[in-house]
Amino acid sequence: MWTTTVSSTWGPLAAGQEEALRDCHGGLPYDVTAPSFLDSHLHPVHEHCSPPLEVMQEAGEMVFVPSGWHHQVHNLEDTISINHNWVNGCNLANMWHFLQQELCTVQKEISEWRNTMPDWHHHCQIIMRSCSGINFEEFYHFLEVIAKRRLLLVKDIGPGEVERIEGSGLGPQQTIFDIGRIAEVLASVVVNPDFQRVDTSMFSQRPEDLLQHLEEVVAATESL
């Protein structure tokens, strides 16, 4: 998060700490500085939350917030803020977990129409994409693209090599690490009941075949 003027960041709270912020309905607060947040009936467990960090961000400074750390920003004057989110091998499983939660939320919201809406599961994926910007099908395609790039790189890794792979900016250890994490997440994806309802007939590669390839590479590189 980079800003051209002054901002105040409340938090960030370490991943998992946000559970103490949930209200009696299970929702997270929109504004933790609102008076209603102090209502113990609405937020019965917020007193168990660890004290937040408060950061004053000056013009031109950058704040790094780790994956899963909830935070709230207050602009103290007119501000242009630039935020950048990314996914890598370290937080890929978090992204998959988030998408599963998002789909569950959508399914819960329109559950009363399940028996009257043709292709209900497909519509859930459409709604999920409109809310989150991605659905299960697109998440698989994302995994496939990154997996194929890493699989091309791993061919250049020889026994005992530790230098960066020329032209990629990645070292052998990171390449192998990414392949392993993609394999772990994809193994969860292919057995997910909602993903199994996705039409994969037009996919360039069957998810099961890609997973098998990844697992074979992981097994082969364990001795490098």
From TrEMBL:
It catalyses: L-lysyl-[protein] + 2-oxoglutarate + O2 = 4-hydroxy-L-lysyl-[protein] + succinate + CO2. It comes from the Eukaryota. One of its GO terms (cellular component) is cytoplasm. Belongs to the JMJD6 family. GO terms for biological process: positive regulation of translational termination. One of its GO terms (molecular function) is 2-oxoglutarate-dependent dioxygenase activity. InterPro entries: JmjC_dom (IPR003347), JMJD6_ArgDemeth/LysHydrox (IPR050910). It holds the Pfam family JmjC. Gene3D superfamilies: Cupin (2.60.120.650). This is Jumonji domain-containing protein 4. Residues 1-103 form the JmjC domain. It comes from Molossus molossus (Pallas' mastiff bat).
